[in-house]
Amino acid sequence: MREDGLEGGAGVRLMFDGHAIEAEAGASLLQAWTAAGLPLTENVGCMGQGVCGACRVLVRREGERLADTALACETPAEEGMQVSFLDHFPARRPHAYDLRALTDSWTALDQIDAVFPEAKNCRHCSGCDRACPKGIEVQRMVNLAAGGEAFAAAALFDHCVMCNLCVAACPEHIDPAHLGQFVRRMSAALTLRPGDLIARLREIERGGQPIDPEAPGANPPPGP
Amino acid sequence: MSAPAAAHGIPHAAALAAWRGRAPAPPRALALPAPELLERFHPDRRPGAMVPLRVGASAGLPCRAELAALLQSDALVEDEDIAGAPLLDADVLVIGGGGAGCVAALTAARAGARVLLATKLRLGDSNTVMAEGGIQAAMGPEDSLQRHFEDTLRAGHFAADKALVAALVSDGPGVIRWLIQEGMGFDLAEGSDRMGGNLLRRKPGGATAARLLSYRDFTGLEMMRALREAVLLAPGITLLERHPALELLTDDRGRCAGAVLHELARGRPVLARAGATVLATGGAGRLHVAGFPTSNHYGATADGLVLAYRLGAALREVDSFQYHPTGIAWPPRMAGQLVSEAARASGAALVNGLGERFVDELDTRDVVAAAILREIAEGRGVARDGQAGVFLDTPGLERAKPGILGRSLVTLTHLAHRAGLDAAAEPFLVRPTLHYQNGGIAIGPDGWSGVPGLLCAGEVTGGLHGRNRMMGNALLELVAFGRRAGAAAAADARAERPRNIGLTHLADWRRALIAQGLPLARKAPLVFPPYGNFDMAKDRGRAA
């Protein structure tokens, strides 16, 4: 076996960014790309865990009319596939805020409205839902956030991997991925106040947690 | 692949029958004293694995041979390459867009510094985002900073720097508060309120108290999401994606003055000049040392170690790597991907081909990994399609704690699905995977390397973990030392303005290589692994 985890040998044929390549059955699209000798310097991150959202691709399967979006590291290569990388690009409109300045949770709805004014313009096209490779109900999150239901909206974005495909898909420039992070971050920063953490921080501030570098447990046990 | 994949063992079907017949297998202590087990079965102890470094600030230090070859190589750039290159100016240059780089950049920018953040791939593409298990901070009433301090030293076989470990554990609770302020969520104990309740705590391998805080089993993703948004929104940070660093710059006093970056989109060099430089380039898993597969992200190619060492920084424990006990062994296309320690921390057992347990699953990672390699080497492993491993008994865990796979081991369940198995019905086949670089660049408690103008944070540093890292100390380290390095860099940058920047350190370096009879033909950093089919030395000339 090789370091990329593939055994070599014949398998399925597909088109990838204009290259006709052959991939071992069971290989991911990303493995198929490198095994074909093509250079990989972008559109790659965690390389298989499916958590970084870097390897975005457009995939059309044989016999299908429409193309889907997917992550190349977790999509197996199939006979007759047509694939192209979707370069990462940032959102074009800034949705700027300073989380540390948002201290008044009574005005959470105003704050969502002020930072993401487009959220209430959702036209329910569900383009974001179709674009999401993780099956998140993106559109529902947008609608919940626009209605001020911050916790419910945040929970829906639990599995987001920041691929930004929903950002590319939204005709209203809502930037759902960033709206999702905004409600998640606001929920944590404004409402998470663990009692055990607060108690320990107070104790440390009062000098109640000294460290003794020469305590018996901080040195190797004496030899036999 | 080399030794660990040796496929003799008990055939999968027979092993499954043995596992079913004995389930649940009773706990069994290690049959061999830990020092002897490590000596005989840990990959770092194999003859020929280490060589002494022959040039540089740590000449004589034992070093993994694959890494030594890169450390003792020539630069990719010459003076003529950088003449006329575009010049960017900043107070602080941060190299690396993972957790440590983001935290350092945020901290420096908030202290008023103009920050350049350069990263090889995209912001957030890093080992941080892949971290699953959690982050340590001594929170419980029965726990203390002292216990966290002693546990970390003991797990690292007392090789760590006590001042660094004291700084690490003391920062712990403050780091959790800082992360919550940045918008990161944490799991709460069952029935706990968001205000005034308790954090969910579990016991990491090798610890004496439940100290591991988490966000489900994708703690690193939750952390990176918050950090990434914070960096994108922070005024004062200029982000340069697809800009790997090829060499550090020096001024006429030998101080680090920034870096030569390579703009991949155009194939040309860009000079980033800065009063202080923070290296946060992460680890080295993609060197595949000892032939192991890796759980690391694509960019983990030891670039930062190469750059800092060439500039005169000292290294430590570069002969010590962490092999995570539970990487995927089958299917081969997923080899090396991680099954989180959260599975064992929640109670999943390791079972050999005879259906027997063979080690305390929550012993330190080096011991558990060596114990698995021993089972395989002595023929008690499980063989399947030419791969060998042992079982991780997730069905047994689900039986003992119904619902746990779907509820709190989401990533694991997803992983099983991609491997084509049902984690509740069939055990994973696992074997150790290259996971972490225990050593690295020697630093002080504020993140300073010995080279003026150069700070380091995160996995690229050495001294915090000794010879074995505990689960949950890596995420803590990157925030604690990202903050320390970012603050120190911002404070120092204002006092310093680099003058006459260039590559003056290379003349001495090349003389030293020649004096030792080392070849100048090998160039580093690697930037991408060989199977990335990209030659940096060739690409350098593309725009010329």
UniProtKB/TrEMBL annotation, chain B:
Residues at the catalytic site: R365 (proton acceptor)
Cofactor field: FAD
Record's keyword terms, sorted: Flavoprotein, Oxidoreductase
SUPFAM superfamilies: FAD/NAD(P)-binding domain (SSF51905), Succinate dehydrogenase/fumarate reductase flavoprotein, catalytic domain (SSF56425)
Pfam families: FAD_binding_2 (PF00890)
Domain called FAD-dependent oxidoreductase 2 FAD-binding: residue spans: 91-475
InterPro entries: FAD-dep_OxRdtase_2_FAD-bd (IPR003953), FAD/NAD-bd_sf (IPR036188), SdhA/FrdA/AprA (IPR030664), Succ_DH/fumarate_Rdtase_cat_sf (IPR027477)
GO molecular function, one term: oxidoreductase activity
A GO BP entry: NAD+ biosynthetic process
Highest taxon, organism lineage: Bacteria
PANTHER family: SUCCINATE DEHYDROGENASE 2 FLAVOPROTEIN SUBUNIT, SUCCINATE DEHYDROGENASE [UBIQUINONE] FLAVOPROTEIN SUBUNIT, MITOCHONDRIAL
Protein's name in the database: L-aspartate oxidase
Species of origin: Teichococcus rhizosphaerae
